[in-house]
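Take a look at the protein record below and tell me what you see:
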Amino acid sequence: MQNVLNNLGMMIRPHFYELAMAIIATLLVIYGAEVNRMVQRQVAHWHFVFRTLVFIVVCAFGYGWLTVWFTPVLAGWLSLIPLHLLAVSTIGILFFLGFLAERKRQL
């Protein structure tokens, strides 16, 4: 069994960056609407032009920066998972993201 888990871990290991990006993108999809609502409440009384600029900064630059900056960090954290636990951890993380999406009615 250990050999099978190690082989699965070896297949996942080259894809840490893509896995990290998928996790971050999924979290942004799940929680992005809440962040947008919170920002919208803060700037609701502002002029249309300023609200639009804030929206652009938050969505394009904020979410983009978060994705670009945090993806390598998360990939580094994923690389700390022992090889024999990597496949199980990956599946667990993906199921947990599915659970979060279901709770937020994203599925």
